[in-house]
Amino acid sequence: MSETDHLIIDDAIWEELIELTGGAATICYQCGSCTANCPWGLVSEETISVRSMIREAQLGLPLNTANLWLCTTCAYCEAYCPRGVTISDVILGLRQLAWHDRETPPGSPSLLWSVYWNNNPWSQPPSHRSIWAKDLELHYYDPAKHDVLLYIGCTSAYDRRAQMIAKAIVHLLRAAKVPFGVLKDDEPCCGEAVLSLGHRQYFQEVAEHAAHTLDEKGVHRMMVISPHCYDAFKNQNHFLDKRIEVTHYTTFIADLIDTEKLDLAKPIDGTVTYHDPCYLARRNQETQAARKILDAIPGLKLEEMERIGEDTLCCGAGGGRMWMETDPGMRFSDLRVHEAKATGANLLATACPFCLTCLEDSVKGDRTSGLIVKDVAEIAALSCVE
Hints:
The chain is an alpha/beta fold. The chain folds into 3 domains: 11-100, no CATH class; 108-255, Rossmann fold, CATH 3.40.50; 263-383, Rossmann fold, CATH 3.40.50. The chain contains 17 helices and 8 strands. Strands 2-1-3-4 form a 4-stranded parallel beta sheet. Helix 1 (11-21) packs across helix 5 (87-100) and helix 12 packs across helix 14. 47% of the residues are buried.
């Protein structure tokens, strides 16, 4: 730094970040474990300097957004932070400030406008939300008749590949004779896409609307498909009535198996390896339910990868990266496919629509993989005895 260069500390930035994050950055003592453990170091010669971003936040320095939008909020850095800093909160707080300065990735404003106008980030008409189920004759949720609301979520409602997950879950619930309903076109967006891009102020509006809708419909128990929706409802939506029990579908289906309400008796010959979604395993400590489901299928052998459970490797789609382009060779899911191949498995299972998309893209790019990627629900449906 030359004698004429100056760093300008902005107290207003510091005070706003304190408010946005609850002071999450203040306890960091700059050990650097966050930077050392960031998965970007696995695919890039220069990893994200998470420590530098935290330090700049501590000092109230002007934002350097070069690396801010690379974070997938996978929370791997948080798992190894000796001070327990909620680094994801700091990142999202910095992104909120970036919105104020209009320093956001291309397309991100359009995503927020889509949620505003369409009730989904997929830029699809709200009236098309339940078209995926037009031949399934699903019942509209009635708290007097149904034990659980099946929350489909925007991705499984609009993305054709993810729709197959929803159909598989419907098949499993019907086989177990579970009284369930859906909200069809009235289903609210959970707002996770908005939150992951750091626009917490708008997320609060979306979250409040979702909570009001669910309360108005008399929902008391809700099963969700995406771990991102699960995290948004369980941990981020402070308007949601605590009387509403939020469950990820793997937990719900595993309980049906444990109570002998669901019979997975059709053999599936092969070897499967399971990829833990970050938002399920690391952020919500759910690592066993999916494995219980896979273990219950006769003929199917589970072989674990090197990094499993809360030590899972991020697929690369979290933190809004699902809506951004990642260059070939920089995709975490490519590494995950190599790890899966090393197990000798012919099936690569996961329990997240975002992970499914990333892993399938990487398998397509690796033509020698010999892997088929499926959601756990899809595999279970193949073994299900009605």
